Amino acid sequence: MRSRQVSFPLDDEGFFRRECSLCCREFKVCLRENELGQLAQCRIDNFLVEQGIEEALAEDGDEDEKDQYCPYCGQSAPPDHWWTQEQLAYVHVIASNVMADLLNKHLIRPLKRNRGRSSFIRFEGKEMKKNEEWISPEVSDMTMVDLPCCKRQIKVLDDWGSAVHCFFCGFCYRIPRRHC
Q: Is the pLDDT of residue 63 over 90?
């Protein structure tokens, strides 16, 4: 079930915030248009499957599941493992709302309509409530780093002075020290 589009805030330059689950540092990546949509839909689909609402989804044969790398510690993980805590909470609310819509439409409303037809069965349930879907706007912070290996850019913490790993291929770069 491809139910709806999910949008995430980007900063003024179009960068998307990510977080390493190992070192817990945040960074930003400039994703292509289709990459962000695929990540969001994958997370919602995974949540619904985990909750038993959908059957296992068929793999899209053209999706590239190459590991990506933390710019700070170099830890590798699949593309759907870099969510910030706020993004996870946001997607959880969206997925819960999708689940509520499905249950209301296919279970609760039909049971309410049929309650007068039989004196043996009585249903007194209420429709599931939906929660507000909200995520903080993205601020334009961090220092931009060019990654010549993949011809992409990332943003790292302003005070980060160590080497930076390419998020897309893992290549390690030394960052020149900034002079005041």
A: no
Helix (H, G, I), strand (E, B) or coil at 155: strand
End-to-end CA distance of the chain: 53
Is 68 strand, coil or helix? strand
Q: Is the pLDDT of residue 60 over 50?
A: no
Residue 122 lies in a domain: no
DSSP per position, 96-138: HHHHHHHHIIIIIHHHHHTTTS-SS------PPPPPP---PPP
CB proximity list for 129: less than 8 A, separation 6 or greater: 100
Q: Per residue, what are the HEC states of 5-27?
A: CCCCCCCCCCCEEEECCCCCCEE
- The number of distinct structural domains making up the chain is 1
Q: In terms of residue numbers, what domain contains 63?
A: 16-94+136-173
CA distance 45 to 56: 9
